[in-house]
Description:
heterodimer, A: mainly alpha, B: mainly alpha, 13 helices, 77% helix, flat
Amino acid sequence: MSSENAAEAKFVDERPPSLVRQAFRLRRTQIGAVLALMLISVALIGPFLAPFGSTEYVDLPNTLSVPGTIFGTDYFGQDVLSRFLFGGRTILILAILATSIGITLGTTLGLTAAYLRGRADEAIMRALDVVLSFPQVLLSLVVISMFGPSNVLIIFTVGLSTTPRIARIIRGAAIGVVERDFISAAEALGESRKRVVFAEVLPNVTSSLLVEMNLRLTYSVGLIASLAFLGFTPEPNAANWGLMIQENRVALTEQPWGVILPTTALALLTIGTGLIGDGFSRVSAGIDRGGKGE
Amino acid sequence: MKASIFRFVLKRIGLGLLTLFIVSLLIFAVTQALPSDPAEAMLGREATPEALAALRADFGLDKPIVVQYGNWLFGILGGDLGTSYATSTPVSEYIGPRVGASFFLLLIAAVGSIPLSIVVGANAALRRDRKFDTTSSLVSLILAAMPEFVVGTILTIIFSTTVWQLLPAVTYLEVGAPPWSDLQGLILPVLTLLLAVTPYVARVMRAAMVEVLESDYVEMARLKGMDERTVLWRHALPNAVGPAFQVIALNLAYLAGGVIIVERLFNFPGIGSALADAVRSRDLPVIQFLALIIAGVYILTNLLADIGTVLVTPRLRTRLK
């Protein structure tokens, strides 16, 4: 229903409504936004609502009926609800920072490659291909094995491993733009290269950029939570949804909440951002993605 | 024209080997930049300087870095993978049986995902914008967004613990035992990998199929009075598989990374679990070798995808001239 309508609207109206507006007319984008906002609030406000501390001992481990708690205690005798309320903040902040690094670097490199063409393009893209030949989890693990799982390191590794993936998409979107007349016109007017790239080319690839931002945020949340699930968090007993699942899954039959709460949260958060990304890609038709590995 | 294809394939293989070489340099550079000394890590802080020096000499850590790299690379090429720091056994002995197990897991997931995504994608294209299409697109989207360990955990909650207790939550497999000796334990890990990959391939398959179904030759076949099934399976599908090929291969490459998490989740004794363990104990030779194979599989699959796409797409094949 959506993309056809959107295409028709373009003929009626000289200036179609902004991409964001169009995307938010879709039901799935709206649902996605509600889900994402809900979970982002839990992650950011949760710590202030937690009845207990994030690593406070409350009662015997893996007990369901503990007075003063709703979901009982976890494998270590800590309050499940409090751990849950604390557990999203780090993942979300790290993922947002990592995605920002990836988007900034990836867009700059992609635009530069598309604009310069020829040898420079080839050199940039081949260099990025080397980074691309590591699956993201693998690259993160190799770096973590050497320097330990610090937050800064996780942000940079995830950001850098995202960069070539974004650069490829942006280059692909920009390569058609750089050949258009208004770019030659800008060059003829004597605009600096930097200005041509960022003021003339960049505004014409925003639809790809929006889609990419949402997808990369979704995958970065997944990747960072996965690293925590493997046990790689700065502190060994950090309140973190990924790590919570790992810690409590052995007692899944006695105390399911310790796993169900963080699993649901991660699922809804990634589905939310995923739906928003899909909304954007639907209104900016022609973007169909091949997979996380790409 | 044959010669041009041959040249393209050779060039692509050369590029793949070059990438692999740079990747090996990179792995070595990153892993040797480590702040702690593996000899000290093994012997503890109280070790005498003589004992440390002896152990370093044992591992060849006292030699210049270029020599260390050369020794490592030629060792691997000659089948000598070094000795694991953590277990003091040869890496080949430690990793060997796990490679087979992981390969088996990947193979079933890969082989299963291809027909599954073709069937889902083709059916969605046939019933375009109807219930099957919208539902499958939404389900794909949801599955694609979630990280694998969340999908796997949800499956565990549903099928082996909280809701029903039908399947084992973990694989009971001795290291080195044939992976098919615990078939039940394989179901959930394979299912998780299938669900991680299928959405992408199904989506591209659908798009390709939609395009083919609108083409003139499909209309022609229908007008000739062929029955719909023949039109679909003999005329439309083979032409839609071509475009999906690259994506299939890319996602198989992706599995090489995804398997790390999924093996950990189900305690499957493959290279993924071994890598996670090695990272925790900073077992350098194991990390270096596993990183090299996983990246190697990734590069190889991408290489095959590029070559395969050119070979199955007539338009690209002629452009090579």
